[in-house]
Give the backbone structure.
Amino acid sequence: MKNDKLQLTRRQFNQAGATVILGSMALGQRLSALASDPGVAAEFTTDFSAPSTAFNRMLFGQFLEHFQRQVYGGVFAPGSPLSDSNGFRLDVIEALRDLKVPVVRWPGGCFASAYHWRNGVGNPRQPSLDKAWGVEDPNTFGTDEFVAWCRMIGAEPYICTNAGTGTPEEMSDWVEYCNLKDQGQFARLRKANGHAEPFNVRYWSIGNENYLGGEIGAKTVEEWGPLVRESAKMMRAVDSDLKILAAATVTGNWTPPMLKNAGKYLDYISIHGYWDALWQRGTTPADYLHSIAHCVEPEQQIQQAVELLKQTGFSDRIKIAFDEWNLRGWHHPGFPGGGANQLFEISERDESDRNETYTMADAVFSASFLNACLRNAEYVHMACMAPVVNVRGPLFVHAKGIVKRTTYHVLKMYSDLLQANVVPGRVVSEPLAIDQVSVPALDALATCSDDRKQIAIAFINRHPALPARMKLDIGSGKKFRKASITILSGDSPDAYNDVAHPSRVVPETQELELANELFQLAPHSIAIVQASI
């Protein structure tokens, strides 16, 4: 999809008239609020008879790391009245089932680069020092618990191995523990631990961000390719049917040598992105506009990854997994690597759980990210929002319940409402200027069913204050027969959900009547139009 400079004038939209005005206020209030506002002119053109690309539902994946309250006090809380007999929070399970999470990556993240899986299986289990995050992990949530939890929410387990302090043999032993039925000491260990049948874990990553100097067991360019090659060889020697990923970058000289060494053993490259960097002390979350300024950067990163795969000759067989992504970086001053005042710095991680951080800016950015992945569905086959609960996640978990943040509702809309195939389209939109950056004020993505009789179009109005006056062209001779629209907006661009107000931002659905394919979309909103054609 291409975003071009404005070719439609506001006068053309005002003369044609907008037939639908949608937002978070009552309909009468919306009409009153928007009647005198000229709005942002935009057009979306697509053709539902054009060739389409089926997308992989793994794009709606999640990520779970042993950091702050993601595992302990998040998905796993033995003794809580909201947990089952195994310690799993039932309200979290219900919410993630409802989200239809397809895959979850675990145990990290930076945590994975010093994690030895054997500490987290069998009984008794001894606590061990988490060298990445400077705390002690009780090891009560390990491989058995993770796989069981994934099965409970209906997700595929995806394990990220220790390529920092670990070895290829340790990785292959972990595969044996999970996937072999009877052969081998580690398969027998699993059976002795009460799991007679293999776990059949299909997705495995070699390493996390081993290209970063702060990562435990960071590797040089020269070290990385051979390590990935030998690890993948040993893992496939245990189970030839794995889907294997390896940590990669889209710039610099890290990835091409790794692909030259190990590309024939890989199914994916793993790339990461956080755009509002909040790692260290003294940083505060970006406001709405400065968050939206990053909206086009994920697609630029994807395009760089695609070009890298093409240049190295692997674009036909290796896919892209954007398996850690979020608008905002996690707050962990002094870490990885420790700090002078560890207890103070560790307590600062609670800043990541402030619900007022996760506003319509996070929702709009997340929808833009998903649109970017879906537009590149030929190449991007997985994406994992980081993390799934607490910190920057779509679910906030507290002692008495959960809060579904704005991003939860975006993920659910995309998971539930889109059709299975992406259709090419073209956006013409006024720009939204933020300091020296300019992004299209509107984005859109079209999908259709296999028989092309059902369609769903995702629209994003990034403007904080102005409605989008949208013209829609769905192809020659194509008309809507029956349509509805589901919209997520807020009474302000800074609107958020919290414990006291868990439903301040929630989706609304209503029937949609289009005259001349024109409608008006509220500011700072995401909408999905579903229709028969």
Remarks:
- Residues 221-238 form the longest helix (18 residues).
